Structure formats: structure tokens, C-alpha cells
Amino acid sequence: xxxxxxxxxxxxxxxxxxxxxxFETADAFKKVLGRKTAKTPALRxxxxxxxxFEPSTRTRVAFEMAAKRxxxxxxxxxxKTSSATKGETLRDTVENIRALAAxxxxxxxxxxxxxxxxxxxxxxxxxxxxxxxxxxPTQALLDCFTLREKFxxxxxxxxxxxxxxxxxxxxxxxxxxxKKLGAEVTLVGPSTLVPHEFExxxxxxxxxxxxxLADKDAVMxxxxxxxxxxxxxxxxxxxxxxxxxxxxxxxxxxxxDAIIMHPGPINRGVEIDSELADSEQSVILEQVTNGLAVRMxxxxxxxxxxxxxxxxx
Amino acid sequence: xxxxWIKNGRIIDPKNNRDExxxxxxxxxxxxxxxxxxxxxxAEVIDASGLVVCPGLVDLHVHxxxxxxxxxxxxxxxxxxxxxxxxxxxxxxxxxSPAVDSAGTVQLIKDVVHREAVVNVFPTGTITVxxxxxxLAPTGSLASSGIVAITDGGKCVQNAGLMRRAVQYAHMFDIxxxxxxxxxxxxxxxxxxxxxxxxxxGLRGLPKAAEDMIVSRDVILSTHTGAHxxxxxxxSKTAVEIIRRAKARGINVTAEVTPHHISLTDAEVxxxxxxxxxNPPLRSEEDRIALLxxxxxxxxxxxxxxxxxxxxxxxxxxxxxxxxxxIGLETALSLxxxxxxxSERLSLIGALSLLTHRPAEILKLKKGTLSEGADADVTxxxxxxxxxxxxxxxxxxxxxxxxxxxxLTGKVKTTIxxxxxxxxxxxxxxx
Lengths: 313, 431
Ligand SMILES: [Zn+2]
Ligand SMILES: [Zn+2]
Hints:
The complex is a heterodimer of chains A (313) and B (431).
Chain A: H1 16-34, E1 47-52, H2 57-69, E2 73-78, H3 83-86, H4 90-99, E3 104-109, H5 114-121, E4 126-131, H6 137-151, E5 158-162, H7 169-180, E6 184-188, E7 204-206, H8 209-213, E8 218-221, H9 237-244, H10 248-251, E9 259-261, H11 274-277, H12 284-302, H13 307-312
Helix pairs in contact in A: 1-12, 2-12, 6-7, 6-12
Chain B: E1 4-13, E2 18-27, E3 30-32, H1 37-42, E4 44-47, E5 52-55, E6 57-62, H2 75-84, E7 87-92, H3 103-116, E8 120-123, H4 139-144, E9 150-151, H5 160-172, E10 177-179, H6 184-187, E11 192-193, H7 196-201, E12 205-206, H8 208-225, E13 229-231, H9 237-248, E14 253-257, H10 259-263, H11 285-296, E15 302-303, H12 312-315, H13 332-342, H14 348-353, H15 357-362, E16 378-387, E17 408-417, E18 420-423
Parallel strand pairs in B: 1-4, 1-5, 6-7, 7-8, 9-10, 10-13, 11-12, 13-14, 14-15
Antiparallel strand pairs in B: 1-2, 2-3, 5-16, 16-17, 17-18
């Protein structure tokens, strides 16, 4: 199964075969990570630039470590202000970085479509580390990789995604990935954050936590952000927690051995009770570990590597 | 000026319900009856066989960026684009820099128009000082300086009390108020239509309710004042329904739609191509069909382009940061023909009325007809010739068009203003 993409921008455009190729490559890298010298020379001599226009220590560090495990040189740039507010265009910024001999660019940007936009401009691989509320493909891949480890396959599994769907790139990428891999997806949260338009993507939409959680194999929580009162989608964090927070009692609404996922960072006591986050059903830290293998796979494949080659190395 | 004899064209004058093959005569810059033989002997002859000869098109809504943003467009480039698109009269919006909120700025624009324009340009003034929505601009002196309407062009007065006074005050001078209908508390920082596609792309939505609220408000203000309010670029099905009911009750509102809103939907935004970013945004297919039906039944009075030039470097950015707006003068005729005439929703007369006498009548411009004695503004076009708009080949200074690379049908061959040919099918002929 080949991977013919220069870039990893969206899950929407990936085929099931491509996703499986990436998973197989990630499987191989996960084995590498288990070795004493957990490093491969796959990207030796390559220069990976992490271009973060939005702060995200987690994702930036995860990409950075993935690139280093592949022996690449890494430069991480935290662009404190967006290029637009500095008067320089995004095109200018990335063309400059390319001119400094970058070989791969990882971009996080608040504007939907921005990663695809620079992928069209540049002749080098571009990996999307989150473009606004649009997509966050490596997060969805690591989430589904984790589900696949737990369940063997996502086929027929029932998964609830709970929280702020409207503004979540994680939700969008996961919807595409889970649907492609055969899972049944239910979105749940307040009506202002979970619009019914999403039903047209082939998922269920619910505002009733109890019925939405019934017989689910997994629940994926999203981080809740509470903005200015008048722009907010719900009255208060307390109200959110009382209606949609996951606690021990509500956990029983799920299947008995259901797993809890969260892309982090967690608001303990808001979207999830602290003890649940650390419980046996939580796979939150496994997600983080898998994120390393999945990002290695993404970097490696976009740079022209093949799954078979990892195994033999 | 010698007379002009346009021979053997398909003469269509929607205002007079005329559609026949024949000759059209221009004498002294006016449409004339057949003149005496000695005049015909020296007349300039234009062979119009196979061509449609219609009144020069009228556009109630263009942005020419003068004064202040001549890197996007000038009066020369904008009126050239108009001429190339078959338009002989355009109404330009006052959202310039400075905004047209004083008689002095109107005079400045008129001076530039006098020097540079190749078609008729009718300026508008603002409703409020600096388009800031806080204090009324001097409507009376603007009116005496020759503006044809007031509007905050691209902005919407949010304070209903202020808008009511603006409408009442302007009514005293018989000056219509033109509105870009948008409630900012609902539209927020949206960048595209709120709906299925915005949900998918993660782009912030501009809900239709933002337009519908102000359309309702304006209908109410017109009801209570009797003043004429013209609603720009209607894009939502609900807004259409509100206007339809208002008109049935005899309320003094008129409305326009753009060629792009009747041709495209928000599905185009999936490419993140910023040439599909406009305000109001491209809506759903249901809305698009409602707009076409509204043109068919007269609920919407005319087509106007909203011609909004922006440079390529301004549009070559992330979708969020690109300016709203697309150019439209050079493609409007082809698109109108495609959506209304070729689709068999309207006759050729019906489709052309939306670009000629109907817009003219909204602002009481003495334009848009081939009646005897009318100004000789005439457009000749080939109904069936195909062409492909190309980047850098527009007469507009900007090329932010959604139609680049797409084949369009219907090509302007000659544009005549006051009896003088200003566009010959390939070039602008200036004095
Ligand atoms: Zn407008
Ligand atoms: Zn406009």
C-alpha cells in the first residue's frame, strides 16, 4: 500500500488504505521506540521546521520529538503574533523559511485552510498541526491508532465525541477518520456547540448526555473553553459541568469496559472528574505515546519513506 | 459629431418591450428616428448583423476605490471594466478614503470622473459621517452636490433610531437610502455562509439571520416613513420572502442581487479560494434558487455587480484574512444570460430589463432605454460567443474574479456612450 502524498493536511482527503498504511508504519515505529536506542536514521540530514502561529507546547514538543527520533534537525518557531499582524504575509514567511533550506514544515495556524494553502505554495512536505477549527490530522490518527490498539478494529464500534464540536479541529478530523474506519459516531454537547448540520456528515447529534453515552465503546472528551460571557455558547463552566461533565455516575451509562479519551490539555473538574482522567479506563497517556509513533510515521511517509523499509531497518 | 447608423441588429429595448431586427440611429448623442438621407450619407455605420443591440447596461453598485485606494482601481480602470462589460452607467459607493461624506469629496470625485471616466458615473454619499454609524452626514448638501443616493456602502448603520432619522431626513430631499443589510451582533467575525460547509471547514459563519434582521428593520422603517430604501445584494431566501410580502403591501423598498449570488453557492469555498470570499457570502443552493425565483416574479428589481476590486496580494492570504469582495463588471452580462435567459427562466427582454431600465428607474436615472430622444448609451453583444476570463486580462486593475478560467457565453462587441464608441470589443477608446 503506497503513500503518494507530499503533505498531510486533512483526514478528509485520505483513503482508508492511506490511513492503514500510516498505521502500519506507526506500528513499526512504535516497536523502534521500544528498543534501547529508540532512534532511526530515516530523516538524517533533513531539517524539519515547526512553525507555530498558535501556542501549543504539547503538539509542538510531540512533533519535535518525533522528528528527532527520526534523526532530523529541528527548529521550532513560536510565531508569537500572526504574520498578518506583522504586515508580512504567510506566503512571505514560509517562502523565507523554505529559502533557508527547510526540508519539511509543520504548521499550526489559527486560520482554517492555511496548511493546505502553504502546501500548494511549497515544494517540500507540509504537515498540518492544526489549522483553526478545520483539521488536526495527526491528532485524529493517534486517536484512531489508540482505538485500534484497544479494539483491534474500529469497525462497528460506537464512539461518542463530547464537548465543543463547533470550534474543534480534533472533532472534525476524528469524524472523518472514525467514519472511514467503520465506526459509528455520536456528537454530544450543548446545542450551541453541536449544530445539527453535522448530521449531514453521517454522524448522530445529541444534546442528551445519558442517551448519547448509552452502549458506547469509547467517549472522547474535548477541551472546553469558556470565552467572554456574551460570546459564550453556554452560561457558565459550572452549568456545563453539571449538564455535560463526565463523572463516575455518568461513566456507568457507557459500556462497562468503555474507554475514555482526551486530546489534552485536560480541564480537571470541568469536562471530566479528576479521578476519571487517571482511572484504568482512561487511555489519555497512551494517546500521548502513540502520538509520537504516528507523527514519526507522518513525517517519514511524506518524506517519501515506505512502511516496509521501517520494519527492515 | 457625425450621426451613427447601427444596421441590422436585433434591437432589444426592454422598457418599450421592443425586440426586432432593424436599424438604430444616433444623432447628436441621442437615440433618433431615421434621420434625413443627407445625414445618413455621412453617418458612421456599424454593422450589427448577428448582434443584440440593447440599452447600455446600468450598474447601481460598484466600488471604484477613488479617492484613496487607486492601487485597487481608478476611475479610468473601473469605467474601462464597465465599458468592456457593456455598462454605460454605474453608481459608485462612497466607502472610499476619505469616505464621501461632504460636498467637497463629491466634487473631487466628479473632477476625476470628468477627466478619466469612459462611462457615466453617478456618485453616492454616505449616510453617516465617516461611515461610522454615529452622526448623520450632511445629506442636504450632498444632495445639492449631485449624489444620487446615500449609503454607508459596505457598512450597515446598526442603530435603528439613527437609521430611522437618516431615512426620514433623506426622504425630504427625495434621495433614496441604499443599505448593505447586516446585523453585526449576529454576523460577528464570520467569513463565509453559516451552514453545512462552514461546519465542515471550521470557518466562522455569517448567519442569514444577520441579513434578514436588517431587511426586516428596513421594511419597517420604510413602512413608517414612506421613504425609499434600496436593499443591496440580497442573498437569503428568508430576506426574499420578507421583501415579497413588503412589496405586496406596497412598501417602498427595492432590491438587487449580484450575478455571483445567483450563480454560485458556498460549496465553492471548500477550495479555500479567496476569490469566493464576499459579503454577504455565497449561500446555499436553496437560497440561490430563491433569488432566481425572486428575479422571475419581480420581487427583486435588478441585478447589480457589487464590483469590489482587491489586488492579488491582498487576496493571496489565509481565507480568514482576505478582504471580502469580487469584481463583476466584465462578467455580469454573461452570467445574467446564463442564469436567466439560457435557463429559460426569462425571455431575453426580461433578462436584459434587469440590467437596463429597471436599475435606472430605482435611482431615477434617465438611462437604460433606447426610446427616441434618450441618451445614446448602447451596447452591442454577441449572444453566443464564448470567452474565458483570464487573470491579468481584465480591464479592471484587479482580477479577484471567481470566473477565471471558466468558459462564459455572451460577449460585448461595442459599447457606446452618448453616441461615441468607448469599447470596440478589444480596446477602450478614450478621447
Ligand atoms: Zn455591501
Ligand atoms: Zn458593495
